[in-house]
From TrEMBL:
Protein known as: non-specific serine/threonine protein kinase
One matching Pfam family: Pkinase
Positions contributing to ATP binding: K299
Bilayer-crossing regions: 215-237
Domain of life: Eukaryota
Subcellular location: Membrane
Amino acid sequence: MDLNPPQIYYTSSVEDNNSDNPYVEFKNKWFGSFYVGDWGSFIRLGSDGHLKAYELTESGWEGIDLLGLDQCSYPLPCGKYSLCSKEGCSCLDTVSESETTFFKPINSTSLDHGCYAVSPISCEPSVHHSFIELKGGYSQPIYSSLFSDTIITLEICKETCLKNCSCKAAIYNLGYCYFLSHVFSIEKNYSSDYYSNSAFIKVQNYPEKKRQNGAVIVGSTLGAVLVVLLICGLFFLRAEKGFEEAEEHCLDNMLGMPTRFSYEELKNITKNFSNKLGEGGFGSVFHGILPLGSDVAVKHQFNFGAVNKSFIAEVQTIGSIHHFNLVSLVGFCAESSNRLLVYEYMANGSLDRWIFNQNRDLALGWQIRRKIILDIAKGLAYLHEECNQKIIHLDIKPQNILLDENFNAKISDFGLSKLIGKDQSRVITAMRGTPGYMAPEWLSSCITEKVDVYSFGIVVLEILCGRRNVDESQEEEDMHLLGLFKRKQEEGQLMDLVDKCSDDMQSNAAEVVELMKVAAWCLQTEYARRPSMSTVVKLFEGSVDVTGSLNEDFLNGLTLEPVDTFPSIVLPSILSGPR
């Protein structure tokens, strides 16, 4: 297919061995560069997207597929407007809830040739178009070059695509919208931990037909629907009870667990949950007093499936580790459908309440902010390097940094954290975290502890500048802190970004700017160029010099155009042959 510019569907890197005559070799599912061997070899990129290495042996040329991808991860294993799954190829509307046939196979005896639109999509007003929806787990193995750089609603995502003739589909994920100008093979991912995308394929509406016998159809199906709903309800209740029993058994068999409270005990400790400290997406937090007089914070989680997973993850993770800069888990409750976590009480609440507050009387001074940043760095360094297993937090943001009465900072909320072996360098996991604090490599779902380093860099900038990473109250050109930071750095005016609500910060602006450079180091696009958190701690202690380590082109490749200036999209080429 001759599309221009070229389109990325796979990326990798080759380590340089400083050889004068290196060649690429594939060993143990990884690329590497080595000294020239005794036999000739070459790599060929086929028109089907497969990258193969050939080596001349005594028996002739032998080839091996280098990418190691499953068939559905290539651009066109099933042709256009098709679904690629473990069951084989099929047209997209066979898996949607639409009762209308919008696509038909090009060759009914060979479904891998793709499908065509029964009614071709026109550039008529958007009222003539609609979407078929593929719910959960669907993606196209092509990096979209155009996406919304801010969180938008699903409705805005769909409306933006409908209004642009070039947009043929949209993929929505965690508040971000990816626009596609061509629909290749859509991949079905069976693991909910790998993709949480939903795909919306634009189709041309058919002229409305007059509805006949509507009342008869409704009457004949109502009874069947009620029976199905009754059966599903009974099955759900039985499955939910089994899950709760299995979860409680899991918690009972964990070693080194903190105190387990009954629900009645926590009602007494919190005076029937009367003093609410705050509320988040998964539940509410209440103040409580233990029998011996210690203050605690009790997090009462709502009983959803995702919360059950995060509850176990948090008990497993924070219940077995102890560090001054991590919030201590005092105990928990897992009783029937009730899920509660009991933490040490942090008198000054979360960091966002202090750094985003425009009240000059409450503005934090330079030394306190510097200490908070160091505390966060120490907590992350412990998680990444000093635990028995490496722990990646995956959701570092001001709301998850709590402050005690002396403004000591402690990392909290381990519900999304990931444990990996110390010998593992990377791990594939579902996209998780908070948009605005997520590193670029999340697009590949193959991540390292350096995603926490990137989030740390964002938080450092927010602490020093006294504003959010994305602030819609600012002028459009200043809305995104990273874009503003890059522009001010290029103009040599970083001091303009220092929080103006604090006279102490202004008085120490030169030192603040030096710390901004550390944030820039943590925000490198290539994760390998970011420092480890232990290096950041050493920098604070004066044993590491940041000079010479920075590449301040950390925004290279980011799209900062607003969604409403949706340009004509041209998707790049899908491998028209060897290059």
